[in-house]
Recover the amino acids of this structure.
């Protein structure tokens, strides 16, 4: 603790030292006076013999110091004083830096949490998604999910793999839970054995679902999510062993998963075992996501090779029934494309986030340019001070360091303030961010974000200080002592650095505005696309599922659905109601299958194309606002009469028969044992997967039919989306009335996914609108900073050239001439900036091609509009200082100083 | 140029002389300076001021200690005193210096090489 004592006793020490030296000199003087010298002579002689008193004192003190730190602290103190002296400058700079750093930190925390942090599982780098593609499968090729796994694939892969520690399949689903207060539709993950082992997160209480729980017709078991356990059981640890009714069947609770546990990125209420009946499986049934944990050290390529090998075993081991060729799937060219699980979770959001990060980074640069400009102006005023310091012997290294310490302090203080902004910024981001942003719940400010903020603060401090420091504290600093007088009209050279900065700012602002402009055009293009429904804010949708355990006979199910529709239609303010297996953009896993036309021939070895199957009730088209292109729609007597009728989408009609009307009266079926169905209507194309994706070809079946899902006896689709058109859609009162209407038919039916089509639509364009808002904010920030920058520089030059302008006016120049002169200077700067910016934007905007729709990355209209806007704003920013220049009174200007 | 005189000495020389002087008797700064000047017969030109950084270095290394007292001329002064550690250090330095001096003298001696 020696050094600590020293640190405290230092002040006393220094005082003693001074006293000692003073006494020394006094004693000497006295002695010399004693020898007969005059007091004045003696004092001089004593000084001479002693040498430099200050130096002796300083050297003595330095013995006790650690010089680098001491000098740094001195610089810091000096810097703080300088910052305090100029409050306005400091406040503006701090605010600019803080906003810049705050915005960057906020976006970085999202990038960090979503893209950079490993997934929330132990050894997450070993986890992979068993993704596979089937380029040879017609219709499937443009499937975003690729080819999902079938249960038989799961068994083959589990039995024969050499590269996985464990693997399994899972699929999100919904189920009705009853017997606990109100019936409720809950989110379920159906999973096979191997999924939990792969994810390797232990249960909160109880045990995992095990292989024994997978036995078909065995005891039915279930695991709860932490949230469901808290919500429905209040976290009671006694739930293990109790039963709940899931889809009207009792299941025994064996365990609860811990808080924040997700299956990949899917939140759920219940985990339910799949319980495949191994003896009855066929090759097909591609409906499950695969997940696996690679053996340590196994590369993805090896695992891909392993799956390729097992695909042959799979085709050798299973079949699609007698008379079918199991190796027919070779034509599908099924290819494994195993991906790290993290990539699967993140999906296409990484494009958006990196674009946003990049733009916010640009804003930071613009902000830095602005503050650098301020620093340049301020340091010009401080040139005399610097020159004096140089003349007094301050080395220029020390002076540069002093200025850098000052600007780094500015950066750090800005960073501290920025961290507070970031905290608010993250909340704002979460509020406006797309709700389907993956890993949303993991976003937080952590130590890495903190490190990023500090790094950014220091870095921006250095960037800020470097230009002024090198320019003014350099070896030529002493020149300023001479130049500070009235002789100096600002030289061209002194403005160069500022001009470059302003042009750079204009250029970066242009890049940001062009990107924002492209997003605006994208958004407008999306809005003009006919999604296949109209007036979405007046469309109420809700999902209702009627499980077999609740109502057994299919026709009874249809009657209940029909009755609900009637009740809904009779609710006040309702125009009409209908039902459909899923509305466009709802994102439920769709039903895809092949179709054969009677008058076409299909080669044996080629699989018929796959099309989306949907099931719609009479009245649905009119309710949703989906246009009927040709023919007629289903009637209730078609449906109850099980008449073999079908409708198809316009693009499907054109693909098979050339025109919509040609399709009417033609016959279709799914497989050979199914009777032919007559095409009675053609429906407009619907943007099923969001407005950005092209409309898929769709086959519309009645909601009750024979051979539904392959079984001969008539069946009804049990989970449907009910669609209601009403001006009152979305209001609380309306929702209550609809709930009552449903429950008046059957009180055991929960309503799920209750929302308006507008919500659904907004969610489907959320990625675009989020990018648009973020780029818009970035562009607006850059534009504001850019205006301030150009205004500042022009005002400053005008104030510097006051004398020159005065002379010009005195010599007979008109106000208009002066105005023009100043504007010209501004225009030149802006033009250079715009030119550089266009070049940079041409290079950068292709990076955001993935986010654009209906507009190219080099859209000339956007470029022209932004360039024009920027020029206009720049000139406007110059106009006010120019106007001031014309008001210069020659006499005052010349007498000035 | 600052401290030419001091620079003409080798590093540690001034400290050695201070220690040697203090070994004889404790002194305050001024007396110390006068003593060194007198005994060196002004052969070494030492700025009096350079004494103080050297004293601080010795203080820091605990080779000397200082106490406030009253000088013979009735002044409040800081009197420096050799510590045991300082005495040992002095011995060591002196022997090292003598060795060095011997070496240098030999090399500088005319004739044999």
């Amino acid at each position: 603790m020696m050094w600590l004592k020293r640190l405290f006793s230092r002040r006393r020490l220094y005082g003693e030292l001074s006293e000692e030296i003073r006494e020394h000199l006094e004693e000497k003087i006295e002695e010399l006076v004693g020898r007969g010298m005059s007091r004045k002579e003696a004092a001089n002689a004593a000084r001479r013999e002693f040498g430099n008193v200050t130096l002796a004192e300083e050297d003595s003190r330095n013995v006790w110091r650690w010089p680098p730190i001491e000098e740094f602290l001195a610089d810091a103190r000096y810097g703080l004083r300088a910052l305090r002296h100029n409050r306005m400058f400091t406040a503006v700079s701090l605010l600019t830096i803080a906003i810049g750093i705050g915005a960057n930190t906020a976006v970085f925390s999202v990038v960090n949490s979503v893209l950079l942090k490993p997934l929330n599982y132990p050894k997450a780098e070993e986890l992979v998604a068993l993704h596979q593609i089937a380029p040879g499968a017609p219709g499937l090729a443009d499937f975003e999910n690729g080819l999902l796994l079938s249960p038989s694939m799961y068994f083959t892969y589990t039995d024969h793999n050499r590269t996985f520690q464990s693997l399994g399949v899972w699929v999100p689903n919904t189920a009705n839970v009853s017997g606990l207060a109100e019936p409720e539709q809950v989110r379920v993950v159906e999973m096979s054995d191997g999924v939990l082992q792969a994810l390797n997160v232990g249960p909160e209480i109880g045990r995992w679902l095990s292989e024994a729980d997978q036995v078909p017709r065995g005891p039915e078991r279930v695991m709860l999510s932490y949230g469901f356990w808290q919500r429905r059981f209040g976290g009671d640890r006694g739930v293990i062993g109790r039963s709940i009714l899931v889809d009207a069947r009792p299941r025994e609770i064996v365990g609860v998963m811990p808080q924040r546990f997700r299956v990949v990125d899917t939140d759920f209420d219940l985990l339910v075992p799949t319980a495949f009946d191994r003896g009855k499986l066929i090759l097909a049934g591609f409906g499950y996501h695969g997940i696996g944990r690679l053996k340590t050290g196994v590369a993805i390529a090896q695992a891909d090779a392993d799956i390729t090998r097992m695909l042959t075993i799979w085709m050798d081991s299973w079949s699609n029934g007698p008379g079918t060729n199991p190796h027919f799937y070779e034509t599908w060219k099924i290819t494994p494309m195993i991906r790290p699980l993290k990539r699967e979770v993140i999906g296409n959001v990484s494009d958006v986030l990196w674009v946003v990060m990049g733009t916010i980074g640009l804003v930071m640069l613009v902000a830095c340019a602005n503050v650098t400009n301020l620093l340049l102006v301020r340091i010009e005023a401080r040139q005399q001070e610097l020159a004096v310091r140089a003349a007094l012997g301050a080395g220029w290294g020390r002076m540069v360091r002093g200025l850098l310490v000052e600007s780094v302090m500015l950066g750090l203080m800005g960073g501290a303030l920025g961290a507070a902004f970031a905290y608010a910024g993250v909340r704002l981001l979460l509020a406006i961010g797309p709700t389907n942003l993956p890993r949303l719940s993991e976003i937080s400010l952590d130590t890495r974000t903190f490190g990023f903020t500090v790094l950014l603060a220091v870095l921006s401090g250095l960037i800020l200080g470097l230009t002024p420091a090198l320019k003014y504290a350099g070896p030529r600093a002493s020149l300023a002592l001479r130049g500070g007088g009235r002789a100096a009209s600002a030289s061209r050279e002194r403005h160069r650095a500022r001009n470059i900065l302003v042009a750079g700012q204009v250029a970066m602002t242009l890049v940001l505005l062009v990107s924002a402009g492209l997003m605006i055009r994208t958004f407008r293009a999306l809005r003009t696309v006919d999604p296949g429904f109209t007036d979405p804010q007046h469309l109420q949708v809700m999902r209702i599922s009627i499980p077999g355990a609740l109502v057994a006979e299919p026709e009874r199910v249809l009657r209940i659905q029909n009755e609900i529709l009637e009740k809904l239609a009779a609710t006040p303010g309702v125009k009409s109601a209908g039902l459909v297996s899923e509305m466009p953009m709802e994102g439920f896993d769709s039903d895809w299958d092949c179709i054969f036309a009677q008058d076409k021939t299909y080669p044996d070895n080629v699989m018929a194309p796959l099309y989306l199957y949907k099931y719609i009730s009479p009245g649905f088209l009119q309710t949703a606002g989906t246009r009927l292109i040709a023919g007629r729609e289903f009637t209730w007597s078609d449906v109850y009469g099980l008449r073999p009728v079908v409708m198809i989408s316009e693009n499907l009609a054109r693909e098979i028969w050339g025109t919509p009307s040609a399709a009417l009266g033609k016959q279709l079926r799914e497989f050979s044992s199914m009777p032919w169905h007559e095409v009675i209507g053609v429906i407009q194309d619907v943007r099923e997967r969001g407005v950005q994706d092209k409309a898929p070809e769709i086959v519309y079946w009645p909601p009750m039919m024979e051979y539904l899902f392959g079984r001969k006896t008539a069946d009804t689709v049990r989970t449907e989306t009910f669609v209601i058109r009403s001006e009152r859609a979305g209001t609380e009162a309306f929702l209550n009335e609809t709930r009552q209407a449903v429950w008046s038919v059957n009180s055991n039916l929960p309503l799920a996914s209750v929302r308006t089509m507008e919500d659904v639509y907004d969610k489907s364009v959320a990625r675009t609108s989020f990018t648009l808002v973020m780029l818009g904010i970035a562009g607006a920030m850059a534009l504001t900073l850019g205006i301030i920058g150009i205004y500042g520089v022009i005002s400053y030059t005008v104030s510097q050239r006051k004398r020159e302008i005065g002379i010009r006016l005195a010599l007979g120049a008109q106000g208009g001439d002066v105005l023009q002169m100043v504007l010209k200077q501004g225009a030149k700067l802006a033009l250079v900036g715009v030119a550089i910016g266009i070049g940079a934007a041409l290079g950068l905007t292709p990076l955001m091609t993935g986010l654009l729709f209906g507009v190219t990355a080099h859209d000339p209209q956007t470029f022209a509009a932004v360039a024009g806007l920027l020029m206009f704003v720049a000139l406007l920013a110059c106009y006010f200082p120019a106007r001031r220049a014309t008001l210069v009174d020659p006499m005052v200007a010349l007498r000035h100083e | 140029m600052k401290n030419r005189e001091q620079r003409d000495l080798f590093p540690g020389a001034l400290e050695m002389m201070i220690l040697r002087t203090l070994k004889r008797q404790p002194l305050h700064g001024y007396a110390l300076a006068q003593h060194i000047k007198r005994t060196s017969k002004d052969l070494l030109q030492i700025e009096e001021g350079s004494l103080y950084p050297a004293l601080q270095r010795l203080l820091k290394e605990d080779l000397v200690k200082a106490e406030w007292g009253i000088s013979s001329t009735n002044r409040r002064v800081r009197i420096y005193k050799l510590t045991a550690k300082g005495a040992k250090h002095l011995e060591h330095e002196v022997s090292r210096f003598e060795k060095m001096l011997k070496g240098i003298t030999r090399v500088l001696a005319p004739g044999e090489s």
